[in-house]
Amino acid sequence: MVTFVFKLPDLGEGTTKAEIVRWHVATGDIVREDQPLVDVMTDKATMEIPSPVSGTVTGLHGEPGDTRPVGAELAVFDVSGASTAAPPKSEAEAKAPVRPVPQPPASAEAAIEPRPSTERPTASPAVRRRASELGLSLADVPASGPSGRVLREDLDAYIAQARKAEGRPAASLQGDFEEIKIIGLRRAIAERMQDAKRRIPHITYVEEVDVEALEGLRAHLNDERSGEAVKLTILPFLMRAIVKAAARHPQCNAVFDDAAGIVRRWRSVHIGLATQTSAGLMVPVVRNAETLDLWACAKEIARLAARARDGKAAREELTGSTVTISSLGALGGIVSTPVINSPEVAIIGVNRIVERPVVHRGQVVVRRMMNLSSSFDHRIIDGWDAASFIQSIKAYLEQPATLFIDAPASSR
Questions:
Q1: DSSP class of 80
Q2: Distance between CA 339 and CA 201 in Å, rounded?
Q3: What whole-number distance in Å separates Cα of residue 36 and Cα of residue 154?
Q4: Which of 132, 351, 377, 397 could form a disulfide with 371, with the two C-beta atoms 3.0–4.6 Å apart?
Q5: How far apart are CA 79 and CA 255, in angstroms?
Q6: How many CB atoms lie within 10 A of CB 363?
Q7: Distance CA 155, CA 166 (A)
Q8: What local confidence, expressed as pLDDT, does residue 111 receive?
Q9: Given this model, what pLDDT does residue 39 score?
Q10: Which residues neighbour 270 within 8 Å (Cβ) at sequence distance 6 or greater?
Q11: Which of 122-136, 275-289, 383-397 has the lowest mean pLDDT?
Q12: Cα(98)–Cα(77) distance, integer angstroms
């Protein structure tokens, strides 16, 4: 037997380790060169590593959720029977190119490979054990893995379909609870949130904003340019208000390197947009927002959100923000306490727009109102500065014409 050992390659940009997210192969599988081998996640991005050789997989090192250092063994291949394969690559050549990983298909039924009815299904020991505990035959489960391999998600989808057909919750097949191992992006999010709350003393400031005039202007502009591919939401207006307020309160458009004890106040405004995806929370970045008009902002928001949700966002599109907006849209609630996107010092939370009675010019009238729930790093931002920054944003949004008027130089 001719053995080839594949080690975790240097993934670049100072990366020293990576977390195994998903194996595309199993021990005993016959693979081709450049066939997807494993998905790994660094602190920069999730990437797909292809097989460096053709052969039979004789060993895999690490389970999903395990972290492996660069240079550690990942997989072992028997290449003696790979008659049609190219000779094994040298160790330098085996640093296979990595590719960003797209999001898996939304439907568990997508990309299913048919398996001959006479063929014994292949699956990991964990999947076989779970199927046995539930009294299920893997031969009945549609497989989406390589060479007709039944994956855990295939079994989950089959269980869900069975329970749906019987009118019972899918989770009931597994008893009173379902155990889900926190790995990959979900674990990275958990660690970042925990680190931010542990290290950063948050101060949250909530202010209500009368957006009646702003909503009227937004509707008018959308009607005037009804042929546009994108529509103006409130976010482009809020981004413009943040840009103008940051010019007056530069301490809020900053990042804090607490290890070095340095605050970097940015002249440019790079706005992160907290975006929910099927894989978890991502924060694509609208760069140089101060150079964009409303429609350019709207188009960039739509483009970045689509790339994040499709799993195609590049690393440079997910890093480098100086202030972040967190919005749940129609689910925005009344008040929230957003967690700061470290190392930034401010995050602006957008709550739901609602109609409610308010006193306006001495009369009780119904107006469209919205709360801004924002958090600040209290090590860097005092309460007065936080309130002043939000009050500036409020003033711009309540008098939307001022969003398009340059302030006199003396007031900047």
A1: T
A2: 10
A3: 18
A4: 351
A5: 51
A6: 7
A7: 17
A8: 40
A9: 86
A10: 285, 286, 287, 288, 289, 320, 321, 322, 323
A11: 122-136
A12: 19
Give the whole-angstrom CA distance, residue 247 versus residue 104: 42
Q: What does the block give as tokens for 54?
A: 């053709």
Of 239, 256, 185, 157, the closest CA to residue 42 belongs to 185
pLDDT at 103: 44
Active site residues: 378, 382
| Tokens found for residue 188 | 């990275």
Indicate the DSSP class of residue 408: P
Distance, in Å, from the CA atom of 84 to the CA atom of 107, rounded to the nearest integer, reads 35
Please report which confidence band the pLDDT of residue 106 belongs to, taking 50, 70 and 90 as the band edges: very low
87 falls in which pLDDT band (50, 70, 90)? very low
Q: Is 178 helix (H, G, I), strand (E, B) or coil?
A: coil
- Give, as one character, the DSSP assignment of residue 407: P
What element of type H or E holds 108?
none
What's residue 109's pLDDT? Answer: 38
Spatial neighbors of 197 by CB under 8 A, at least 6 apart, are: 339
The tally of CA atoms less than 13 A away on the side-chain side of residue 50 is 14
Q: Which residues contact 160 (CB under 8 A, 6 or more apart)?
A: 108, 170
Q: Specify whether the CB–CB gap between 90 and 113 falls below 8 A.
A: no
Mind listing the pLDDT tens digit for each residue in 210-230?
999 999 999 999 999 988 889
- Going from the C-alpha of 347 to that of each of 105, 280, 341, the distances in angstroms are 32, 19, 7
**Cα angle, residue 241 at apex, residues 351 and 315 outer, rounded to 5°:** 80
Tens digits of residue pLDDT in 247-302: 999 999 999 999 899 999 999 999 999 988 877 788 999 999 999 999 999 999 99
Q: How far apart are CA 389 and CA 366, in angstroms?
A: 27
Q: Which domains does the chain have, with CATH numbers?
A: 3-174 (2.40.50.100), 202-411 (3.30.559.10)
Angle at CA 315, nearest 5°, toward 273 and 378? 45
Beta bridge partners of 208: 371
With residue 306 as reference, give the H or E element that holds it: helix 294-309
Helix (H, G, I), strand (E, B) or coil at 20: strand
Is-cis flag, bond preceding 343, omega within 30? yes
Q: Which of 184-188, 231-235, 311-315 has the highest mean pLDDT?
A: 231-235
